[in-house]
Each structure stands twice: as C-alpha cells, then as structure tokens.
Amino acid sequence: MKAAGKTPSLLIGHSLGGLAAIVAASELPDVAAVATIGAPADLHHILSIFKQDDLDAIREDGEASVEIAGRSFVISRSFIESLQAIDVETAINSLRRPVLVMHSPVDQVVGINHASRIFVSSRHPKSFISLDTADHLLSDAGDANYAAAMVAAWANRFLPPLVDDLPQVEAAKGVSATETLAGKFQLTVRSGEHTLFADEPPSVGGLGSGLSPYELVSAGLAACTVMTMRLYANRKGFPLERASTTVEHMKVADMMPPDRFKRTVVLEGPLSDEQRARILEIADRCPVDLTLLRGSDVQTELIDGLAFITPTKVEP
Fold first, then answer.
1. DSSP 8-state assignment for residue 202
2. Do residues 121 and 258 share a domain?
3. Is residue 164 part of a domain?
4. Low-confidence residues of the chain, pLDDT below 50?
5. What is the CA radius of gyration of the chain?
6. CA dihedral for 270, 274, 278, 281, sign (positive or negative)
7. Burial of 128 (0-12, 13-18, 19+ CB in 10 A)
8. pLDDT of residue 309
9. Are 256 and 128 part of one and the same domain?
10. CA nearest to 107, candidates 127, 130, 126
C-alpha cells in the first residue's frame, strides 16, 4: 500500500484482529492510531476457546475448521505457532500511538477484563468506549453502526487530513430564525443578504412553505459534500464533470445515537474506479460530516429587549 501511495494511517481490528492491529502497528511507523473491538489481551486466550480435538487436528493435519462465537474459521498450525511467540501486552506498551479500546461488558467470548488489560498497558493518549449490550460479533446493526461512528469520531483527532485546502469556515457570521406569525411554524431564516423560509409539512401542522429543521441540516451536509468533492477532484485533476448528493434524515429506534443521515452520491464523468473511490473517501471527511460525527458545543444566551430583527408576517 505504501508503494501505491496509500500508506495506512489507521488500523482497526475486531477480536483477534484487534491484537493483529496492535502487533502490526508496532512494526509500521506510519500508522497514526489503532482501534480495537472486543480484542483479547493475550493470544493464549484464543487457544483456550478451542476444543482439544480441534487443536489435535490442527497439529496432525496442518489445519482444521474450528467454531468461534457460532462461526467457523480455518486455523492453521503456523497460526497457532505464531500466537505462542507474541507478547501482546509488551507490544501494546511499546506502541506509543493513540489507542481506542472498545468492548462490551457482556461479551461472552472475550471478557471485559481483557479490555482493562489492554487499556492499562496502552500509553496515553488512550480511550475506552463501552459497547453496552453488544455481543462479541456486533451482530446487531445498531451496535455495529454505533461502533463505526465512535471510531470515526475518535480517529479524526489523530489522522492527517486527506487534503489541506477544503473549505473550513471558522465561524458563521450569524444565521437568524424569526417567526413570521403566519401559520404555526413558519420562520424567516436570514444570513447576510440571503433569506429563506423554514417550516414544517402540513402533516404536523405546518404550512409546508420551507425546509424543516432536519432538512436544513441535511442540506448543509449535502452542499458541503459536493463542494468538498469538487475541490478535491479539481486539485487532483480528476475528470469529474458534475457531482450531486442527496441526503435523507431518519430516526432509527434501535440505534444510538438514533439519528441517521443517508447520503447518496452521483459522480458524472469518465472517472476510473480508483478515482471514484478516492472522491468518496473525501466525501466522508467533509467539514459538516465531521461536525456531525464529533458533536458540537451549543451555548444559549437570553438577551433583554426587542429582538434585533423585527418579525415580518409573510403569507405563503
């Protein structure tokens, strides 16, 4: 990957893959951070969950199919021998890279005590996130989505930017929303010389005269995504003729946090598969996307007297 100009910066590993990520990172100086999910703190734990018959078959036949957490895996003799030669906690302690440890307290395959050992052995900066009621395989989509979102938000602090010329407005100069007094929800939204309506659809008592609050958030994400992809494509000289993005917002009851923004991207032009993949990578790092993933600090202040904008009644 380094020879192809795609040096990995983040390693993420689940279960035994978490230990593999730690060991690999200790030998790859360009890796900036490591995240583990449900990883054991020692490789002998893996051997302890194998049946003795399976271990005998591996030693005699060179490999065998074993069942772990309800799934079958082919384990080779060389794999077993390599496990016994690795000191995981020493590798973690010598890593000296940011580490994120994610683990479920009810994991029945790898106990939560393994997460404690990995966390204690890791050097700062290090973080721990509990996966609550998730099983070892994160078989519930809500648990998997939560883990993915947490890794993305955490890793952004430590990863180098994919590009250094994307639009990052330091501060909005002030966007105001004021009731028009027409209908139940209609607002006038103003920023500088620009004015638009915000409203709710008639189905919930609005006039349907403007975008709803979540539609406005979705519009910001869609606009930022397209602008970011355009700047990146122009910088790289990719033949992107036109880009468009549709963003849908939905509430998912069994997911935490429950808000999901589904983004559909269309890229027009004679782009190669690799160019399309690179543009999509950048889409996932647009400033508004990162703001939504990280969360933000919202401060509220009440001022006395008349509002600085006088409400104007506007008929739809």
1. G
2. no
3. no
4. 307-311, 316
5. 25
6. positive
7. middle
8. 47
9. no
10. 130
Q: Which phi and psi (to 5°) does residue 14 adopt? A: -105, 135
Please give the residue range of the domain that contains residue 138: 10-43+86-155
Q: Does some domain include residue 167?
A: no
* Structural domains counted in the chain: 2
CA quadruple 109, 114, 119, 121: dihedral sign: negative
Single pTM value for the model: 0.56
Q: What is the pLDDT of residue 218?
A: 95
Helix (H) or strand (E) holding 143: helix 141-155
Q: Which of 144, 147, 164 is nearest to 155 (CA)?
A: 147
- Taking only the tens place, the pLDDT of each residue in 20-71 is 888 888 888 889 999 999 998 876 666 676 777 877 888 888 888 877 666 7
CATH of residue 185's domain is 3.30.300.20
- DSSP annotation of 85 reads T
Encoded tokens for 105: 């307290």
For residue range 237-258, list pLDDT tens digits in order.
999 999 999 999 999 887 777 8
| Beta bridge pairs of residue 195 | 190
One domain for residues 117 and 250: no
Query: Cα 17 to the chain's mean position, in Å?
Result: 18
Identify whether residues 140 and 216 lie together within a single domain.
Answer: no
- Sheet strands (E) in the chain: 10-14, 33-37, 63-68, 71-76, 99-103, 126-130, 176-179, 187-191, 194-198, 242-251, 259-268
Specify whether the backbone of 151 is left (phi greater than 0), alpha (psi in -120 to 50) or beta: alpha
- Please list, in sequence order, all residues whose beta carbon lies within 8 angstroms of the beta carbon of residue 154, skipping any fewer than 6 positions away: 33, 35, 100, 127, 129
With H, G, I as helix, E, B as strand and everything else as coil, classify residue 134.
Answer: coil
